[in-house]
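Dissemination and training. As part of the outreach component of the grant, students in the summer workshop were shown how a complex can be specified as a set of sequence lines and then modelled as a single object. The example used during the hands-on session is reproduced here so that future cohorts can follow it. Participants entered these lines:
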Amino acid sequence: MKEFINRVQQDGKVDTTYSKVRECLRRDILSNYFAPGTRLKIAELIKLYNVSQMPIREALQQLQGEGLIIIEPHKGAYVRELDEKFVSNIYDIRRIIEVFLTLESLKKVTDRDIKKLFQTQKNYEKASVKRDVESMLKCNSQFHTTLYQLADNDEALHIIEKHSQLINSLRLSYGFEGNRVEEVIVEHREILEAISLRDEKLLEKAATSHCLNAKANLLAAMKN
Amino acid sequence: MKEFINRVQQDGKVDTTYSKVRECLRRDILSNYFAPGTRLKIAELIKLYNVSQMPIREALQQLQGEGLIIIEPHKGAYVRELDEKFVSNIYDIRRIIEVFLTLESLKKVTDRDIKKLFQTQKNYEKASVKRDVESMLKCNSQFHTTLYQLADNDEALHIIEKHSQLINSLRLSYGFEGNRVEEVIVEHREILEAISLRDEKLLEKAATSHCLNAKANLLAAMKN
DNA sequence: AAGTGGTCTAGACCACCTT
DNA sequence: AGGTGGTCTAGACCACTTA
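and obtained this result:
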């Protein structure tokens, strides 16, 4: 574990030290190098990442904001328990916000937006045939982002995005993405159809079950 | 403005410096001493609060987590615009989460819980007769907390609480709490009745309009 | 090219938990 | 009382902006 921080330094971008520490820490927590419950001692992290206190504290603060760790004043930080209850709670919050955003979007959506959504969906299906996972993740994220941006509620979007990286990491680490490809395609088509028909009730149903299925799928994978 | 930080140091509790700075900053932002858009320069805040960089940066990080300020790497922090759009967005998020929590609570609520809710409501009404604003705020918060805790979703509760202080401060600074006392009493009674009847549809309606009314009321006050 | 201001380092300080 | 480890200070460093 003598790897230096620079393992996250992508392309030529200039980043702050604390953002690099944050990404390293996130990775090390999600990869289970720091298991849930582990105390994150600053002195330890200083040696591990080769930086001094301040960037570490900043990174810890930010990760606390994401709910990944918990900081107790004068006592220190520890990795939060990522158990089924927590995942279930997060998915429930995501569901109600996502359904809300989807329905709000319906009020604003234009025919042009719908065309774009169909195009994204087509790209997703093409990528799925080629088993191009990276492209699939990108299309999936684009599909939802395009839709949600129409709702014009940055604060809600922010909550969704804050947990996205965590959820995506969990999904990958339980390696279950493969077996829901067909389902996701069908569910996205249902959402698209409801939007095209501008049918609010139908859309609510489609969006709700899309979210509930994702939740059930991850929880089932976690049971092993 | 040579006031020292200790103006927030309540009772005998030992607090960290950064938490005191955070509360001071929050107050100074919400009181409009730091107007929206203002750049919060660390050097300035050092002189103002008589502390050094670190506690200030920690406080800024935390306030960014609450959405009160925005930090741009290598550029600095500035106070976020608290316009009607922002308030409207926050209230929309709160509404869907609060309705969700309320409905989840209904699944778990016992007769004993219902009794406690009635008691809290009675206390609220007593306080309102005496115009005891502090006691009213306390009962109001207790009413919702008692209910929401039954839903057993700490993450959702956390989102609600994160924005509560902000919303409460805005309410106070627009000084409109007084003219909604009777409405709040009626609305809480409706919610209580729906819970007693264990009528989900009725409860959803009551909780939704409770939230929508609060939103409309604050937005109307902000228009002046 | 100089100035401003955010970022990082090193070490002192002090709260909390043991013995 | 001593040790551990989080918190705070002072100053160096360096990214970004203006002229």
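The interface with chain B takes residues 15-16, 19, 54, 57-58, 61-62, 64-65, 67, 73-74, 86, 89-90, 92-93, 96-97, 100, 153-156, 158-159 of chain A (CB under 8 Å). Students were then asked to discuss how this feature might be tested experimentally.
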